[in-house]
Amino acid sequence: MKPITLPLKKPGQSVQAIAPPSRKRRIALVLQGGGALGAYQAGVYQAMHENNLAPDWVVGTSIGAINAALIAGNREADRVPRLREFWNRVSHVDALDMNRVIDSARRWNTWFATADAVLQGVKGFFSPRLFNAFAAGGAVAPESASFYDTAPLAATLRELVDFDYLHGPQGARLCVNALKVTSGELVSFDSDTQPINVEHIMASGALPPGFPAVRIDGELYWDGGLYSNTPLETVLADQSATDTLCFMVDLWNPVGPEPTTLDEVQTRQKDVMFASRSARHIENYLKLHQLQTMVRSLYDKLPAELKGSAGRQMLEETGCNTTIHIVRIPYAGQDWHMAAKDINFSRGSIEWRWEQGYQDGCRAIAQGDWLDPVADGVGVVVHELEPARQAPAQRAGFA
Predict the structure, then answer these.
(1) What does the alpha-carbon distance between residue 30 and residue 270 come to, in Å, rounded to a whole number?
(2) DSSP-assigned states of every residue in 364-389
(3) pLDDT in tens, 249-259
(4) For residues 109 and 126, what is the distance between their CA atoms, to the nearest angstrom?
(5) What mean pLDDT comes out for the span 161-171?
(6) Across-strand partners of 220?
(7) Which one, of 36, 94, 43, 90, lies nearest residue 71 by Cα?
(8) Is-cis flag, bond preceding 128, omega within 30?
């Protein structure tokens, strides 16, 4: 296997000077669910865009599905502006200038923005259901069984996502995951095999009981994060005979200190629930990859007279000699250990997350260790983002 031939960034060199990789090796972008934390993903994508690393394939769950649709469903030149428009639209205008006040005031402002989102909803995203029988314990239609109405999000997606472009010859492949309510089965909607529309994106982000289930072809769907919040397995399960450079953006941290307060307990619980299970997915994939590699090796050692069309077909179905490079980019913000950090749509918080995602994306690209050659038969190489030399500024309460 030949390594991807992207030149390393040199000290002082503009990140924009990095050339795109060969189209023979696809670029995938995997986006977790995480509500308002998803602005970090937008910043990572901006770094990729400025480095000519346009993804061929975008896979998302929940808010990751929304960001994925905004990326795959727009021309390259329009993607960052559309992401910016979405996140500006859903952010809560701050009562204070977050750059001119002390940290305690920033935290107060953040709590105010979070409370406002709970009570009044988020413009362009969701609104509370007034006089809601569901909230009072009554029975309602399955599509209305929620505290909030997500019709505003449907309107926003129709305005900001070009579904005709998505399904055209220039559109990137888009996969969004959702959970079938009646069976608990995880379903991946794939633009390579079916038309993707607003309902599929909405279904991927339909987290109960806040948001209602979405009906598609007669079936009800909830947020795919209820089953697996990191859709890496969608990429690992793909059997295309091509090497893959996969950028995986994590919004939740499975590792943390022992909690001592109610808020810390709830925060730690949420982090663990929604954190990436990528290590387990990769372990399972490696076992399968080793088996596939062995099958190919054994077949190649057979005498010519024993090789036949049936064996070749079996090899194509089960044999594998491709490599996936996974560049993991984790969100490092602490958000004061707020359990409600994913519904903190404060504009200062949104802008901070976007900027951190951009900076981390640039560092991951400059790190560029996926360029190093690997031995034949290596199935997965994981590249962890090196910690920043300096801690992020204590702005908007995230350090």
Answers:
(1) 20
(2) HHHH-GGGS---TT--EEEEEPPPPS
(3) 999 988 888 99
(4) 21
(5) 95
(6) 215
(7) 43
(8) no
Chain segment 304-329, per-residue pLDDT in tens? 777 776 666 666 666 566 788 999 99
Q: Which token pair is 76?
A: 């390259």
- Write the pLDDT tens digit of every residue in 46-61: 999 999 999 999 999 9
Distance CA 202, CA 292 (A): 37
- Contact criterion met (CB below 8 Å) for 220 and 213: yes
Tell me which residue has tokens 């107060």.
108
pTM comes to: 0.88
Give the pLDDT confidence score for residue 379 in this predicted structure.
82
Dihedral sign (CA 154, 158, 161, 164): positive
CA-to-CA dists, residue 108 to 105, 120, 121, 292, angstroms: 5, 18, 19, 55
Tell me the helix, strand and coil percentages in the chain, rounded to 5: 45, 15, 40
Sign of CA dihedral 331, 333, 334, 339: negative
Residue 162 is predicted with a pLDDT of 97
